[in-house]
UniProtKB/TrEMBL annotation, chain A:
Residues 364-571 form the RagB/SusD domain. Belongs to the SusD family. Residues 1-23 form the signal peptide. Residues 24-225 form the SusD-like N-terminal domain. Gene3D superfamilies: 1.25.40.390. Keywords: Cell outer membrane, Membrane, Signal. It is found in: Cell outer membrane. It comes from Arenibacter antarcticus. Its main location: membrane. This is RagB/SusD family nutrient uptake outer membrane protein.
From TrEMBL, chain B:
It comes from the Bacteria. Gene3D superfamilies: 2.60.40.2060, Carboxypeptidase-like, regulatory domain (2.60.40.1120). Residues 34-121, 124-227 form the DUF3823 domain. This is DUF3823 domain-containing protein. InterPro entries: DUF3823_C (IPR041186), DUF3823_N (IPR024278).
C-alpha cells in the first residue's frame, strides 16, 4: 500500500516536472490586475499612467530627502537638502555629512516606464494634435529624468527604447555617454517639449501641474545654466581617472558660452511671452511685501502668474500629503506632532539678507556697539548691544527674512516664540545649561521659560533650534498638525522668479543677452520684496539675491555643486548660530546676542569626489565608475 | 504516510543542495598579506608630509578580474601608509592626487610582508621653518623651494590640538594667497594672533602648528613641514 502511494507520488512529480515547461497551462492572465496593454491602449489609461510618471519625477520638494530619496514619507528624520547647503542645519544631527544618495535604479525604472509609454502610444488611436501633445509630454518627462541623472552621476547610459529581457547580458549593456552628450540630450528633449507641448491645458490645475511649453522652457533655463556652470567651473575642482579622460564627467570651459546662450534664449522666450509676472510685484511697504511673500509659499495657487510648474498635494492623511509642517513647526506650536523644529536656518544665511538702508549689500547681524562683527563665545569685555525686545535686532532687514524665518520673539500662530540660550549674571558670568536665576525678585530661566513647552530653542534636545532660527517659509500658519501626513501645501517647482535669476546669472557670467533686461529682472525681484533702490547687475548681487529669494527651495545645494565651490566653502567649515541671552548686568535686564558656532557642530569637510555619485554595480552593468568611488 | 513526508523533504533538500553547489567549500585564502611603506622625497630621502582628510591616496587594482573596483589606501600625515589585510596577488599600484609631480603606476606582487616605497618630487619643499610664540602671536617664518614652474597658490599656518593638523583640519588658520612663482631666498612670514583667537586657542594649553604651501596644479594637495607642538 505504502509503496503504491510513493510510486504514484513519484510519477506525479515526474509528470509535473516534464510537462509544465512545455505547456502554457499555467500562463493565464491574472484576474486581479489590469494588463499593461489594456492600460496603454486607452487615452484615459494613459492619463492615469502619466500621473504615475509625474509622481516618480525627481522633483526636490517637501518629500525629497537626500538619504531617503524622492517621495519619502514617514520617519525620514527630515534630513533635507537645505541642511547640506549654506541655508540650514539639522537640530538632531548637526554633523550629518553623508553623500550617498542614490537614484540610479529608480531613475532607470522611470526611464523604462517612459519608454514603455512611447512604445505603446504608436498603437493608440489619437488625433494628430493629441499625438503631438503626448510626444511633447514624453520629451518633457524624459528631460526631467535625465536631468536628475546627469546632475548626480555625470554622463550616463542613454536608453530611449524599451529593452526586452534576455539572458544575453552583453546585448543589454549600454555604455555611458559623455557628460556633454548627456546634457545635450536633456536640452534636445526640452526643445522637442517646447515645440510640441501646449501653452495651457483645460484648466488651471492641469496647466500648472503637467508639462507645458512654459514648464519645459523654464526647466531649460535651469538645465542649461547648470551645464554652463559645470563647463565654466570644472577647473576649480578637477578630477582625474578613466571617467574623466573619456569625458564621462567634466566639460571643457569652451563649452560654457554655448550653454549660457541656451539659458538666455529660453529665458527670453518666457520673459517676452507676457504670460508671466511675479506675484504682487509692487507692494506698498516691506510689511505688505512680507505678507505677500509668505502667502506665495503657503499656497502657491494664489500666484498662478508666477508658476511655470508645480507639484500638487492633497488628501490629508493619505499618501498624497506630506509632513513639512510637522517636522518644522517650532516646539511651542508642535501641537502633538512627535518630531518638530528639525530644519534650523543658520546665521550665515540671515547675514545675507539686505537691510533697506544699505541696498545692494549683505547686512550681517551686528551684535556689538562698536559696529564690528564679533564671532565667538560670550565675552564680558565685548560691548554687546542691548535690546529690550529680541526681534529689534532684525529691524530694517529684507521683508523676505520676516516671511521665511522664525526668529527669537516672532509671533507665530498667535504665540510668541521664545528662543534664548543663556543668562548673563550681574557679575558677568554665564549660565548656559538648564537652570534658573533670581534677580531683583524676578526668576529668569536659561531657555527663556521654566518648562520646555514654553520655549523653542537651545536646550540641546532635537525639538529645539540650535541656531536661534526656525522655518517659516512653506509652513501653513492656519493649520493644526497633530499627526502624520496632514500638510497639503503645494510646491512651486519652477517659478518665474527662478527664471529671472537664471537669466540674470547667465547674462552676468557670459555677457550675452540684454544687460538692461537682466538688471530689470534682478530688480523686479527686489522690488517685490519692498526694495526701492535699483542695484546694478553684478555676479555678487545676482548670487546674493538667488540665495535669499530661493532660500529653502533646494536650489542652494546645487548652486554650490554646479559652481564648484562646495569644496572650498565646506573645508573645515562650521555653520553659525545667533544665541540670544538675557543680560542682567545693567540696571534693566536686556537681550544681547552672541554670534558663534552652532552648539554641537563639528568642522565639516566635503570631498571633491562627491561632486559625482558612485555608479552602483559596475561589475554587472560594465560601466566605468566615477572618479575615486 | 510519515515516510512520504521524510522522502519529499529529502528529495527537495537534495535538489536544492545540488543546484547551489552548497556542498563545495570556499577554498580561497583570506587576506593574509601586508603592505606598507612611505612616500619619500627623491632628493632628500625625507618622508613627504601629507593630510589624512582629503589627502593623497594610493590606488591599487588587483589583477585577474573583469572591470575591477579601484581600491584605496589613505596615507598618514607623516607620509607613511599601511594595509594589514591585503589579499596576496598581483596588483597595479599608484600614488595619486598628491603634493608631488605625478608618477607612473607600478606592477607589484604582494605576498607576506610587502614593503613598497615611492620616491617622488614634491612640488614645494618648505625650508628653514621657525615657529615661535612671540608675545600674543605665534609667528612662523620659512623659505619655499619649489621644484616646478607653476605658481604657488596659497601658504598657510594651521593650528589644532591634534597632531594631524593641516589645511583640512584646523581650529585657526592664517592663509595668504600668493598666486605667483616663489623664490627660495624670500622669507615668508605668517602669524596667528592668540588674543583674537582666545576662545579657540586657550592659553596654557598645547597646540600643534604646521606650515603648508599649495602649488597651483590640478588636484594638488598642500606640501607641509612637520607639525610642531607649542604651549601658548
Amino acid at each position: 500500500m505504502m509503496k503504491k502511494i510513493i510510486f504514484t507520488y513519484m510519477l506525479f512529480v515526474i509528470l509535473l516536472g516534464t510537462s509544465s515547461s512545455c505547456s502554457d497551462y499555467l500562463e493565464v492572465e491574472p484576474k486581479n490586475k489590469v494588463s499593461a496593454n489594456a492600460v496603454l491602449s486607452d487615452p484615459d489609461g494613459i492619463r492615469g499612467y502619466l500621473a504615475n510618471l509625474y509622481y516618480q519625477l525627481p522633483i526636490e520638494d517637501f518629500v525629497y530627502f537626500p538619504r531617503a530619496g524622492y517621495n519619502a514619507r514617514g520617519n525620514t528624520g527630515s534630513l533635507s537638502l537645505s541642511q547640506y547647503s549654506l541655508e540650514a542645519i539639522h537640530s538632531e544631527w548637526p554633523n550629518w555629512n553623508e553623500f550617498n544618495n542614490q537614484w540610479w535604479d529608480k531613475g532607470y525604472k522611470l526611464n523604462r516606464n517612459i519608454n514603455l509609454l512611447e512604445e505603446s502610444i504608436l498603437t493608440v488611436d489619437f488625433s494628430e494634435a493629441e499625438r503631438t501633445q503626448i510626444e511633447g509630454e514624453i520629451a518633457f518627462l524624459r528631460a526631467y529624468t535625465y536631468y536628475g541623472l546627469v546632475k548626480q552621476y555625470g554622463g550616463v547610459s542613454i536608453i530611449t527604447e524599451n529593452q526586452e529581457y534576455t539572458t544575453d547580458w552583453e546585448s543589454l549593456r549600454v555604455p555611458r555617454s559623455t557628460e556633454k552628450v548627456t546634457w545635450d540630450f536633456v536640452l534636445s528633449q526640452l526643445d522637442i517639449a517646447i515645440d510640441k507641448l501646449p501653452e495651457s491645458r483645460h484648466n488651471e490645475d492641469e496647466t500648472k501641474r503637467r508639462g507645458t511649453k512654459w514648464a519645459a522652457a523654464g526647466l531649460k533655463t535651469r538645465v542649461a545654466l547648470h551645464a554652463a556652470s559645470i563647463a565654466k567651473f570644472w577647473n576649480q575642482a578637477p578630477l582625474s581617472g578613466e571617467a574623466v579622460s573619456k569625458g564621462l564627467v567634466g566639460m571643457k570651459a569652451s563649452e560654457a558660452e554655448h550653454y549660457y546662450k541656451e539659458t538666455i534664449e529660453a529665458a527670453e522666450m518666457i520673459l517676452n511671452s507676457g504670460s508671466f509676472n511675479l506675484y504682487m510685484p509692487e507692494p506698498a511697504s516691506p510689511l505688505e511685501a512680507a505678507i505677500n511673500y509668505q502667502n506665495l509659499f503657503m499656497n502657491p495657487n494664489v500666484a498662478s502668474t508666477e508658476m511655470l510648474f508645480m507639484r500638487g498635494y492633497g488628501h490629508a492623511g493619505g499618501p498624497l500629503a506630506h509632513d513639512y509642517d510637522g517636522w518644522n513647526n517650532p516646539n511651542q506650536t508642535g501641537e502633538g506632532f512627535p518630531h518638530v523644529g528639525r530644519t534650523n536656518p543658520v546665521l550665515g544665511l540671515i547675514d545675507l539678507y539686505e537691510n533697506y538702508n544699505t541696498p545692494g549689500e549683505s547686512s550681517p547681524i551686528i551684535t556689538t556697539t562698536d559696529g564690528q562683527l564679533h564671532d565667538g563665545e560670550f565675552n564680558d569685555a565685548i560691548p554687546y548691544k542691548r535690546f529690550s525686545s529680541p526681534e529689534d535686532i532684525f529691524e530694517g532687514k529684507d521683508a523676505r527674512l520676516f516671511a521665511s524665518i522664525i526668529f527669537p520673539g516672532s509671533i507665530w500662530k498667535g504665540t510668541e516664540i521664545v528662543i534664548q540660550g543663556g543668562i548673563v549674571k550681574p557679575d558677568g558670568s554665564v549660565i548656559g545649561s538648564k537652570d534658573s536665576y533670581e534677580h531683583n525678585g524676578v526668576t529668569y530661566y536659561t531657555y527663556g521659560a521654566e518648562t520646555p513647552n514654553r520655549y523653542s530653542g537651545f536646550d540641546g534636545t532635537p525639538n529645539m533650534t540650535r541656531t536661534g532660527f526656525l522655518m517659516k517659509k512653506f509652513l501653513d500658519e492656519g493649520s493644526r498638525i497633530n499627526t502624520w501626513l496632514q500638510s497639503t501645501t503645494d510646491f512651486a517647482d519652477i517659478r518665474y522668479a527662478e527664471v529671472l535669476l537664471n537669466y540674470a546669472e547667465a547674462v552676468a557670467e557670459s555677457g550675452y543677452g540684454s544687460i538692461l533686461l537682466a538688471t530689470k529682472a534682478l530688480n523686479d525681484i527686489r522690488k517685490r520684496a519692498g526694495h526701492t533702490t535699483i542695484i546694478p547687475l553684478t555676479l555678487e548681487n545676482v548670487l546674493r539675491e538667488r540665495s535669499v529669494e530661493l532660500a529653502f527651495e533646494n536650489k542652494d545645494y546645487w548652486d554650490l555643486i554646479r559652481r564648484r565651490n562646495y569644496h572650498t566653502i565646506f573645508n573645515n567649515f562650521i555653520k553659525t548660530a545667533l544665541v540670544p541671552m538675557i543680560d542682567l548686568r545693567g540696571p534693566e535686564p536686556a537681550f544681547i546676542f552672541v554670534r558663534k558656532n552652532v552648539p554641537g557642530a563639528q568642522p565639516n569637510t566635503f570631498s571633491e569626489r562627491d561632486f559625482y555619485r558612485s555608479i552602483p554595480r559596475i561589475n554587472n552593468n560594465g560601466l566605468i565608475q566615477n572618479p575615486q568611488h | 504516510m510519515k515516510s512520504i513526508r521524510t522522502f519529499s523533504i529529502a528529495l527537495i533538500g537534495l535538489l536544492l543542495l545540488n543546484s547551489c553547489e552548497l556542498t563545495e567549500l570556499d577554498n580561497y585564502n583570506g587576506p593574509n598579506a601586508t603592505i606598507h611603506g612611505g612616500v619619500y622625497d627623491q632628493e632628500t630621502g625625507e618622508l613627504v608630509q601629507q593630510d589624512i582628510i582629503n589627502g593623497m591616496a594610493i590606488e591599487y587594482i588587483e589583477h585577474g578580474y573583469d572591470n575591477p573596483h579601484t581600491q584605496y589606501i589613505v596615507v598618514k600625515n607623516d607620509g607613511t601608509f599601511r594595509n594589514n589585510i591585503m589579499f596576496s596577488g598581483d596588483y597595479t599600484i599608484q600614488p595619486v592626487r598628491g603634493n608631488f609631480v605625478p608618477i607612473e603606476s607600478v606592477e607589484i606582487k604582494v605576498e607576506g610582508d610587502k614593503i613598497q616605497n615611492f620616491n617622488v618630487q614634491p612640488y614645494i619643499r618648505i625650508r628653514n621653518v621657525v615657529i615661535q610664540k612671540q608675545d600674543n602671536k605665534v609667528v612662523a617664518t620659512f623659505n619655499l623651494a619649489q621644484t616646478v614652474t607653476n605658481n604657488v597658490n596659497t601658504i598657510g599656518l594651521f593650528a589644532h590640538a591634534e597632531m594631524n593638523v593641516g589645511e583640512p583640519l584646523n581650529l585657526v588658520a592664517a592663509k595668504i594667497n600668493i598666486n605667483a612663482v616663489s623664490n627660495d631666498v624670500f622669507q615668508y612670514r605668517l602669524e596667528i594672533n592668540l588674543e583674537a583667537n582666545s576662545s579657540t586657542l586657550k592659553s596654557g594649553k598645547e597646540y600643534y602648528f604646521r606650515v603648508g604651501a599649495l602649488i597651483d596644479a590640478p588636484e594638488a594637495k598642500y606640501n607641509y613641514a612637520p607639525a610642531l607642538k607649542i604651549a601658548i
